Amino acid sequence: MNSKKPLLTAAAGLALLGTAGCGSAGSAQDAATDEASGTPAPAASSGAPATSGEYQDGEYTATGSYIPPSNTKEEVTVSLTLADGVVTDLQVSTSGNHPTSKRYQAEFTNGVQQEVVGKPLDEVKVDKVASSSLTSSGFNKALDEIKSEASR
């Protein structure tokens, strides 16, 4: 029973810190006051990447690579079109250097369209598409390069 006491004490201490207002965020009342005065409340910095409004419209192409268990370098080439920071068109081609990789890459390219097209570029980051996580890593590397190139 004594082994639980330090954990409960620590949890209680954290709860007290949270209710004591030891954070840097303003209260809801502060936000309402700013809104009522017509002065916009200051935006909190989240460290997030640039917003979609900060990308130049156009067509971009980049290639990302990854190493699957077959130990043969595979590549994913991503070509996309941006309009107002939103992906309006996407083409993906893959290297298909190994039969197993080729199968996963085909499944990835068939499913990635619905994950990307119509979304703001900043919201696009694929994790696992149609059971292919390694192809996703190559795709995301190419996407990072495109984001960098398209930034204003």
TrEMBL record:
<protein>
    <recommendedName>
        <fullName>FMN-binding domain-containing protein</fullName>
    </recommendedName>
</protein>
<keyword id="KW-0732">Signal</keyword>
<feature type="compositionally biased region" description="Polar residues">
    <location>
        <begin position="62"/>
        <end position="71"/>
    </location>
</feature>
<feature type="region of interest" description="Disordered">
    <location>
        <begin position="22"/>
        <end position="71"/>
    </location>
</feature>
<feature type="signal peptide">
    <location>
        <begin position="1"/>
        <end position="25"/>
    </location>
</feature>
<feature type="compositionally biased region" description="Low complexity">
    <location>
        <begin position="36"/>
        <end position="53"/>
    </location>
</feature>
